[in-house]
Amino acid sequence: MAPRHILHDLSVTEQRSFVDSFDTVISDCDGVIWLLVGWIPGTGDAINALKNAGKCVKFVSNNSFRTGEQYMEKFEHIGAVNVQDDDIVHPAKSIVRYLSYMNQPELRVYSLMSLEANEMLRKHNIEYESLQIKEHLTTATLVNYLAIERPVDAVLFDINLDMSYVELAKAIRHLQLNENCKLIAGGSDIIMPLAENLNVAGFYDFLQHISRYTNRKAIFLGKPAPILGDMLKEMFNIHTPQRCLFVGDMLVQDIQFGKMCGFQSLLVLSGSQTKDQMIAASPEAQPDYYADSLADFIQLFKNIQ
Ligand SMILES: [Mg+2]
């Protein structure tokens, strides 16, 4: 069935049964709750309305370049009440969780992640090495930086706006020197929607660069990776996936991911993707529902009162 707009294509009775059909909402953040740079009107009220209707509302993002505190500040700014740090999952969190699954004593990692994500490693007492070099490099100083004193068990990759050539080169050295070293990747989207009408290249090709020189495939932990789906179900106690509604603004990272998890799916047009792109997608890639914005829930709840 073609995706249905939650306000325009559903009768009031259908809107009521739609709301009754899920207990949990898992929502993407950038492009749905806010923009990377900028805001989306009404999203805080929509989150509160969903919660007032008894829904459990959780968040998942492919962006770890905010600290937990910065996430909280944004939720506060939009007036969403009672959002807890544990309600939000982003790659640095799923990476820390995955490292705990490895169950390896004296685990040591090399991080290509942001300062904010590294802070998460520090909080969890994970021993990590990272390079943050601001000086001008020569071939001689490069050689020094690439020297490896101790091997690592994993190289961690995530969106990091400060990522540099020497950091990538060192990641490759680590992977080449230890064939058991894992390459674990969080955010590695192809495109990064930065602001309205400003889509820039994402970090995907940097990860490909590492893979190319090490012949190593990354273990993906961001959307749309299946491992993340299992983690979300475990963390949020989701036993009946079809009673969960996944909300996102991207067809691959969000809708494909939500469908693969067995969730219902809702595409909002407030972020990266247009209605034309949604309609042009193959039927399997299309969401169950769509809306102009998460804020459409405010009107929907008024309609079914
Ligand atoms: Mg998004």
TrEMBL record:
It comes from the Eukaryota. Substrate binds at S61, N62, N63, K223. InterPro entries: HAD-like_sf, HAD-SF_hydro_IIA, HAD_sf. Mg(2+) binds at D28, D30, D249. The active site is at D28, D30. SUPFAM superfamilies: HAD-like. GO terms for cellular component: cytoplasm. Its cofactor is Mg(2+). GO terms for molecular function: metal ion binding; phosphatase activity. Keywords: Hydrolase, Magnesium, Metal-binding. The keyword Hydrolase applies. Divalent metal ions. Mg(2+) is the most effective. Transmembrane segments: none annotated. Belongs to the HAD-like hydrolase superfamily. This is GH11944. It comes from Drosophila grimshawi (Hawaiian fruit fly). The lineage of its organism: Eukaryota, Metazoa, Ecdysozoa, Arthropoda, Hexapoda. The gene is Dgri\GH11944.
